[in-house]
Amino acid sequence: MKTAVFPRETVYSGTLVLVNGSFPFRRQGMGPSLVSLGGENGAVLLSRGPAVLLTQLMDGLDGWKRIAAVSGWRSEREQRDIYVRSLRENGQEFTDHYVAKPGHSEHQTGLAVDLGLKQPEMDPIRPAFPYSGVCWSFRRQAALYGFVERYPAGKEAVTGIAHEPWHFRYVGAPHASVMAERGFTLEEYIDFVRQYPYGQKSFLYEKDGLSADISYIRAEDGPDTRVELDGEDPLSVSGDNAAGFVVTRRRKKYDA
Q1: Alpha-carbon distances of 172 from 19, 76, 169, 193, rounded to whole Å
Q2: Boundaries of each D-alanyl-D-alanine carboxypeptidase-like core domain copy (predicted)?
Q3: Residue 10, SS3 per DSSP
């Protein structure tokens, strides 16, 4: 057993941070961890880990020949410019449906990317990314690399955003697979994980040789949250940007 100390500000960092209309992005200074996707997508930046995995996925599909990265990380100032321009050009209703308010955009995390099928003219806000061809091939493998379609059809009341088939969010493994298999949005997944308080019970995920226990630590009211951690298996912790931490303990692979 060892005691882990999580400062309050770590609630606002990690690959599972929930950023939406109710929970603004609070962690600034993303710059040092951002990398370019390179090549024709060189102007698009993502956090390093997601960028590496997205590149691996695309290389396996030979996807960059037919798919372009339209948008990745944005500063709050860039998000504000996009929001104001959309209001002017498209009106309030359209903007409310498709453009997050400044400070509330997943693009500020460095964990989100908009993808589009390459065309002579591409819509920068709503690029075409159909459920067919190479785009479908990308979707079939996305969860294995930690990505989910963040704003699916039929979940608008949950996410507060209209269906965006082009917008993908990195949440990491095995979380992306759980979300894809159960049809969860990130909002729903965080609520689901909160049912498994650390040290009392956990959600066991086993598939394709991977075994992981997933549980939740609610942040204490003070400046730090102290938790007694047990076990020797690799453990990762992500804040949820709201009330606590998602704990993932990877266990030894089993025979699938």
Answers
A1: 16, 24, 9, 15
A2: 67-172
A3: helix
| Amino acid identity for residue 139 in this structure | R
Judge whether 182 and 231 are in contact, CB under 8 Å.
no
Rounded CA gap, 172 and 236, in Å?
11
**Nearest-CA neighbor of 26 among 171, 193, 247, 239?**
239
Of the residues 164, 187, 220, 232, only one is catalytic, namely 164
- Distance from C-alpha of 5 to C-alpha of 226, rounded to nearest angstrom: 5
For the stretch 56-74, pLDDT in tens is 999 999 999 999 999 999 9
pLDDT tens digits, one per residue of 90-134 = 999 999 999 999 999 999 999 999 999 999 999 999 999 999 999
Q: Give how far Cα 48 sits from Cα of 77, 149, 210, 222, Å.
A: 22, 19, 23, 32
Residue in this structure with the two tokens 């709201």, named with its chain if needed: 242
Rg of the chain's alpha carbons, rounded to an integer? 18
- Catalytic residue check, 106: no
Put simply, whether the predicted model's pTM sits higher than 0.90 gets the answer yes
- Which domains, from first to last, does the chain contain? 1-16+172-256 (3.30.200.180), 25-170 (3.30.1380.10)
